[in-house]
Amino acid sequence: MTSTFEAPYSIRTSKAAGSGMLSTALTQLDEAFQRLTLDEGLRSIIRQSERELTVAVPIRRDDGTVSVFTGFRVQHSSARGPCKGGIRFHPVVDLDEVRALALLMTLKCAVVNLPYGGAKGGISVDPAGLSEYELERLTRRYAAMIMPILGGKRDIPAPDVNTNPRVMAWFMDTVSMIEGQLSPEIITGKPLELGGSQGRVEATGRGTAVATVEMLRRLGRDPKEMRVAVQGYGNVGFYLAEILEREYGCHIVAVSDVSGGWYNPNGLSLSAINDYLAHYPGSFLSSYASNGHMDRVSNQELLALDVDVLIPAAIENQITALNAEQIQSGIIVEGANGPTNFEADAILRERGVHVVPDILANAGGVIVSYLEWVQDLQWFFWEVGEVRLRLHDVMQRAFEEVWSLSEREQIDLRSAAYMLAVQRVGEAIEARGIFP
Ligand code: NAD
Prior knowledge:
- This protein folds into 2 domains: 9-185, Leucine Dehydrogenase, chain A, domain 1 (Rossmann fold, 3-Layer(aba) Sandwich), CATH 3.40.50.10860; 203-352, NAD(P)-binding Rossmann-like Domain (Rossmann fold, 3-Layer(aba) Sandwich), CATH 3.40.50.
- The chain is globular, with a radius of gyration of 21 Å.
- Helix 6 (203-218) packs across helix 7 and helix 6 (203-218) crosses helix 12 (364-378).
- It is an alpha/beta fold.
- It is built from 14 helices and 12 strands.
- Strands 9-8-7-6-10-11-12 form a 7-stranded mixed beta sheet, with helices on both faces. A 5-stranded mixed beta sheet has the order 1-2-4-3-5.
- The structure holds nicotinamide-adenine-dinucleotide.
């Protein structure tokens, strides 16, 4: 592998990604309905968002001028509980993308059986173009503008792409100032000192690691003999690689970020890479000097490596009809949201590749967000061991439920996960009835 690293380092470039993601999610939803015997009216309800808010968010820039950014909050469903979903700051955020992600949140919460519905929010902005103070003003103004539809029993945001515990702290403080009372339960992913949960930062990676190992067990494969490639070495990829290696003995043979990655068929020295990244925060893998022990790989090459498990943990639409035939791994675990598009999914299914779908595989983040909310509501906080144990139990049970359904119906795991989730959401709507 001799490719040069990839540039420019931009996460996503296409506005069309949002509508593509929405149509994929809706097609998968329709397929689930075909397998279920639910009232046809339920399909019309679940295909649409319950409530959509678009806001024009003005901020005063540091130079005294004014800029206005477009923000969104979409509540897809509150049938099973308060709406739940992250907030992303990114230039290509648009209404269709937020709609698709809100729908996926409804299904994700349902498949792991959390008492939540689904939502998503975002602002169409490049945060790299803002100063720290501008980012804070943007966050606070956006929080104030969407606040009328939020609440610990209505809709609880969380971090997503380009938002982090610091942004969550500004958000929580804004709502608390306006309400005149401390409201930690309004948002999750907060810093520990403001009612955040132990184990939240690693949660999605840990949950994806648990899903990977559950898959391996069902196939009779020994984790210690597995060669794993991870695309995306951010929050999800970093923790899942570390946990798979340290706690389950897997061999991480390749990792990448937006700049490209590194490959060694005998296993990477993750600790050396991690030491480098810790020493030079914000640097890309491309700038790491490997001393010849590893080969460079492009992201496309990484996806096609001869490995046992491939974990796309970066961004959406990475596995498409263009590269699905080249994938050699027999197991794909979707750490990212929507990394496999609809056409690729059909090709992989045809080829007998086992795909653990995003709505199950990366649910660890929302599971620990739920645990954070529960701790906030009771003002009583747990040790990290308790959080990990509960996360593990929820993931293991959800995996078993999806696996058994897929065996019973003779369908792939994605179809089973959608079926289970749609069934649960549909039953909740039916049980509640249609108001008035
Ligand atoms: P992150 O920003 O921390 O990391 C993303 C990683 O992907 C970075 O290493 C980045 O360099 C890399 N990347 C970006 N563009 C790429 C490209 N074109 N090709 C290859 N690599 C690329 O983000 P994250 O929080 O780790 O999220 C990753 C994925 O997981 C996203 O799809 C996100 O929606 C999903 N997810 C995250 C969480 C969470 O709790 N963080 C929860 C559920 C799902």
